[in-house]
Amino acid sequence: MAILPIVEVPDPRLRQISQPVEGVDDDLRRLIDDMFETMYAAPGIGLAAIQVGVPKRVLVIDLQEPEEEGGDPVRDPRVFVNPEIVAESDNEVPYNEGCLSVPDQYAEVDRPDRIRARWLDRDGVAHDEEIDGLLAVCLQHEMDHLNGILFIDHLSRLKREMLLKKLTKQRREQGKRAA
Ligand SMILES: [Zn+2]
Predict the structure, then answer these.
(1) Cα angle at 133 between 129 and 156, to 5 degrees?
(2) pTM to 2 decimal places
(3) 98 C-alpha vs ligand 1 centroid, how far in Å?
(4) Residue 103 Cα, ligand 1 centroid: separation in angstroms?
């Protein structure tokens, strides 16, 4: 397994539309393993293939939620190949989202609190399930990546520009420290 470099804004690859996967094979599983390793190392709870520069409709998610509050995170890796949302609730809830491609920046985004999704897992087995809570938020965020959409696109223009300015400033300061 390998940790892959994460593509960050304003890299135009993040705006690409990812292509459907034609078959779940060992090459794809190798990519999935690398994506998990990259996500855990970052650390993050979700990663789309395009965030490591691969324009395929593949996502990995692990909410790493502890079984009890304050407990150690429990790994619960989930793979979504060719995911599709087939239904969503009218009720939207805000969640303070971040993204490994927009490092250290967070903002509240409203999304449907419950969705029904279809996807294939790492063995190519089809799933059709209702999803809610943080997994629903995360899946919708990651699915946006497959269509070239970032969470900052859901913000007002003013908020988005402020957030990107903060990121530029932060990068400049990190560059100074490194120099
Ligand atoms: Zn993201």
Answers:
(1) 115
(2) 0.95
(3) 7
(4) 9
Number of domains in the chain: 1
pLDDT tens by residue, the chain, 179 residues: 899 999 999 999 999 999 999 999 999 999 999 999 999 999 999 999 999 999 999 999 999 888 788 888 889 999 999 999 999 999 999 999 999 999 999 999 999 999 999 999 999 999 999 999 999 999 999 999 999 999 999 999 999 999 999 999 999 999 887 76
CATH of the domain at 57: 3.90.45.10
Q: Is residue 88 part of a domain?
A: yes
- In the reported structure, the alpha carbon of residue 151 is separated from the centroid of ligand 1 by a whole-number distance in angstroms of 7
Structural domain that includes position 126: 12-174
41 contacts 60 by C-beta, under 8 angstroms: no
Decide: 56 and 115 in contact? Cβ < 8 Å: no
In a domain, 70, yes or no: yes
How far apart are the C-alpha atoms of 28 and 25, rounded to whole Å?
A: 5
Residues taking part in catalysis: 142
Domain assignment present for 7: no
Residue 156 placed within a domain: yes
- The strand pairing partners of 81, in sequence order, are 58, 120
